[in-house]
């Protein structure tokens, strides 16, 4: 290891003492350059860039503290480590030297060669750490700036994409409405009318999800809009809608109780149902049964309803169960042929928890899965204080 030292001292005896102390170091090779004035020191520091400056406080024309300040100005890009020497142990001077940039302070005649070498090494290490921290700070600032720029580009792209996605949805909605108006009354059977209504509703829901997606990508959360609603009506509508659209699965709705009204956000709970029911369809084989249960819960400590969606599909391996509701996690037994991003169930849990509820899953691989949601019914609606909601997602497990 080689270290370049610039010693600033107008005493020949002190210069000789320092040179001998450093030359006898068995571990480090010290390349010592010696000058006798502050002006010379500034010139040499600028020209050669020493690793450490060892300076006397009493110098002709400029004292050591003034030299420290001048070095910080002259070598602003890379100030060398500095150790100050003085003939008196003045505490005020030591504090002033440290504030001006010195890493250590030694009193002449009181230190050994080992103490001098240790002081120089410690000063070098301190400066090295300071430079490393500064480099990391600058790197973090650059990374943050790049991230902000990338987010700005992403937001612009998402805004354009969502705008373009809405165009085809409007065409689908308009054509469904046109068919209903132009079709002869005799040809508009109840089944066909139901399908046209389902097309219009699905297009409208997709438009809402696109809006929610854009809000989420911009880092803003949707607000819950609690209103008195009947969960049974929503569940019954969703199950009947899926029955009319899917001929591959059998749906069974079980209702246990009478009162399923509560103060909830109907849009958010519709998204919860869409995710759970769509997952049950996606991960169940053709001909499989899907059971939907809606039941009144115990009145203690508060009234609540229980919603359970069970399927007879792939099931979830035991090692994946603790991670089911984590974003971007998909069960290890899901084949590549089944599409999904792994964010749907994370969104479901967030929406349920925002309603003050809970969700849990029970499953065994190859024997299906059962998702159980419990929602309190009587959380008051505070019109003056809207509740914050979760970022949306219609993607599935």
Automatic annotation (TrEMBL):
The organism sits in which domain of life? Answer: Bacteria
| Catalytic activity field | ATP + protein L-histidine = ADP + protein N-phospho-L-histidine
The signal peptide here is: none
Uppermost EC category: transferase
SMART domains, alphabetized = HATPase_c, HisKA, REC
What EC number(s) has UniProt assigned to this enzyme? 2.7.13.3
Q: Which Pfam families match?
A: HATPase_c, Response_reg
- Keywords of the record: Kinase, Phosphoprotein, Transferase
Region described as Disordered: spans on this chain? 377-397
Chain positions found as 4-aspartylphosphate: 56
Domain Response regulatory, residue spans:
4-123
Keyword check for Cytoplasm: no
Question: What GO molecular-function term can you cite, just one?
Answer: phosphorelay sensor kinase activity
Looking up InterPro entries in the UniProt record yields: CheY-like_superfamily, HATPase_C_sf, HATPase_dom, His_kinase_dom, HisK_dim/P_dom, HisK_dim/P_sf, Sig_transdc_His_kin-like_C, Sig_transdc_resp-reg_receiver
The UniProt record lists the keyword Ribosomal protein: no
Q: Any idea where the Histidine kinase domain is?
A: 160-379
The name this protein goes by in its record: histidine kinase
């Amino acid at each position: 290891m080689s270290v370049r030292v610039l010693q600033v001292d107008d005493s020949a005896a002190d210069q000789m003492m320092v040179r001998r102390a450093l030359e006898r170091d068995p571990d480090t090779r010290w390349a010592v350059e010696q000058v006798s004035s502050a002006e010379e020191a500034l010139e040499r520091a600028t020209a050669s860039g020493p690793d450490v400056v060892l300076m006397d406080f009493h110098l002709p024309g400029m004292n050591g503290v003034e030299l420290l300040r001048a070095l910080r100005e002259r070598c602003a890009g890379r100030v060398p480590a500095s150790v100050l020497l003085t003939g008196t142990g003045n505490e005020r001077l030591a504090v002033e030297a440290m504030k001006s940039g010195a890493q250590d302070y030694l009193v002449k005649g009181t230190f050994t060669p080992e103490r001098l070498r240790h002081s120089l090494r410690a000063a070098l290490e301190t400066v090295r750490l300071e430079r490393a921290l500064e480099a990391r700070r600058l790197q973090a600032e650059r990374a943050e700036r790049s991230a902000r720029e990338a987010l700005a580009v992403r937001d612009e792209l998402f805004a354009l994409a969502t705008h373009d996605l809405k165009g085809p949805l409007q065409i689908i909605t308009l054509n469904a409405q046109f068919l209903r108006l132009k079709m002869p009354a005799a040809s508009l059977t109840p089944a066909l009318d139901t399908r046209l209504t389902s097309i219009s509703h699905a297009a409208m829901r997709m438009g809402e999800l696109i809006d929610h997606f854009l809000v989420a990508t911009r880092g803003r959360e949707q607000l819950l809009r609690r209103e008195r609603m009947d969960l049974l009506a929503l569940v019954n509508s969703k199950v009947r809608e899926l029955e009319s659209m899917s001929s591959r699965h059998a749906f069974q709705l079980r209702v246990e109780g009478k009162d399923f009204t509560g103060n909830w956000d109907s849009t958010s709970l519709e998204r919860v149902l869409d995710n759970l029911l769509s997952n049950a369809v996606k991960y169940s084989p053709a001909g499989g049964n899907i059971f939907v249960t809606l039941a009144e819960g115990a009145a203690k400590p508060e009234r609540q309803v229980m919603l359970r969606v069970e399927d007879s599909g792939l099931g979830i391996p035991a090692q994946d169960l603790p991670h089911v509701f984590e974003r971007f996690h998909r069960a290890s037994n899901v084949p590549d042929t089944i599409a999904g991003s792994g964010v749907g169930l994370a969104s479901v849990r967030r929406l349920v928890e925002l309603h003050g509820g809970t969700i849990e899953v029970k499953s065994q691989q190859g024997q299906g899965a059962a998702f159980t949601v419990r929602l309190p019914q009587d959380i008051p609606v505070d019109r003056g204080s809207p509740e914050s909601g979760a970022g949306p997602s219609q993607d599935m497990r």
